[in-house]
Every structure is written in C-alpha cells, then in structure tokens.
Input
Amino acid sequence: MWTFDRFEPGALIGETALSLDADTLSRWAQLYPGASAGRASPDLLTAMMMRGYMEVISPRPPGNVHAGQKLRWTGSLPPSGSAIRARYSCLAKEIRKDRRRVTIGAQLTSDDGRILLEGELLMMWAA
Amino acid sequence: MMSTDASSLDLPRELVTVPLCADATRIRLYAEVTGDFNPLHIDAAFAARTPFGKPIAHGTMVLNLVWQALSASFPDGSAYWELDIRFIRPVREGTTVTAGGRLENAEAGIYKVEVTSDEGEVVLAGEARILNPAMGKAAT
Output
C-alpha cells in the first residue's frame, strides 16, 4: 500500500510501459467527439499519464483527492500503436492544515527517448 | 529578425469553447482508458452513499477539455503549452461542462482557463502558457 509515510521526496517511485493501441484510440473518439480521431494528442497523453499512475502507484488508500495538475507539452506526439514509457517520482510531501499533500512528478517518453509530456500531480493523500 | 514574443502574434482574446456532457457512458469510457475504476466514478449505488450523491467524473476527464479548447483555438498544432490547473469542484454524472479561456497577458502568452458547469459553477481553473509563441498561429 502506498501510504503517505512511504513516499520519499526526490525518490523514483516506478516506471511502466504503456501502449497507444487501437482500442484506446477508439474509446477516445467515442468519449470526445471533437477530439482528433485516430491519433495522439496532448489530452490523450494526459489520460495515458493517469493510466500509468494507476499502474505504478498501486494499491493506494481509498479517498485520495486529485487537487491540482501541472502539464508541459512541447509538441512531441507518438505515432499510433507505439510504446510509451511512463516514469513517476515523488517531488515533495508535506502536512498542511492537517492534510497530507503529495506532489508526484510524471514523465512520458517515446520509445526513441523523446519527452512527450511532463506533469506534476498534486494529491491529497488519505492515509 | 523574427520576434519570439507573444505580443507579435494575433493571439485570440477568447479561446474556442468546448462542451461535453459527463454522462455515465463517457465516464465509463474514461475509466477504461485510464484504468481508474474507483467506484466513486462508476458505481451509482456506491456514490449514492457518499456526500456527492452521484458518480463524479474523473478530474482529468474534465481537464482534457482545456487541451481541446487550446487545440481548437490554435488548430495548426504548432502551439505548445504549459498548464497549471486546480480542480475546484466535482462534476456529477449528467452535468454538461464547458471549457474556455481568455487572454490574460499577451506578451507572455498566458490565458486564464476554466471549465464551468451548466449551473454556472467553475469546476476547474488555472493558466495556460504558450511555450513557443513565435510558432503559434491563432484560429481565424
């Protein structure tokens, strides 16, 4: 279980491989009718970042709250069907006003090492 | 010499707005894409026993409308962005939300962005900063 005490600021949490497959692209087109059909986009990469978070930081205590999100996209998009590497680290943690705050850094890279999307997730950790 | 400051561009004062109804089908699809099957999002009976009363949409499902508003406003795809977003209120299943934004600082290429519900509540707010102003071209 990833409890608040387990996070170490500055430490790598873990990595996972994600695939931008046809099923994902199909679901995306159904979900957002106005989105770019059949290809990657920064919004889809944001969802992939969350998929990796779910895989790598698991299990989590119930009741966490996603309070804030920073994202940085510099134009790189992976081709459909390609592999994406997702890496997560703990950037900071603190208790403020009796709330456990954890800031998680995330980075998605393509299989040739290009940075696709970087982000910081601010989570209110339940336990 | 090419200028690299955002004030040299014809940046739109308002972003193209993008609406979406956060219905149960879309929330389920987002759960399948992200692997986030928290019952608070997809189990109506579970959610009914929480203070929310109904399932709520995933935060980034709503945030993604901001990306789509930016993409629609800069359709050539050459504008790159940094977002800083706060999730303010939960979006209950069945709510229609709309993303949009307004130019806050043309020189720095900063937009104030927000997503509002059909009841007029701001559910998400923050900033979008263009990273490569010399390359961005506004929608006309």
In short: Chain B touches chain A through 31 residues (CB under 8 Å). DSSP finds four helices and five strands in chain B.
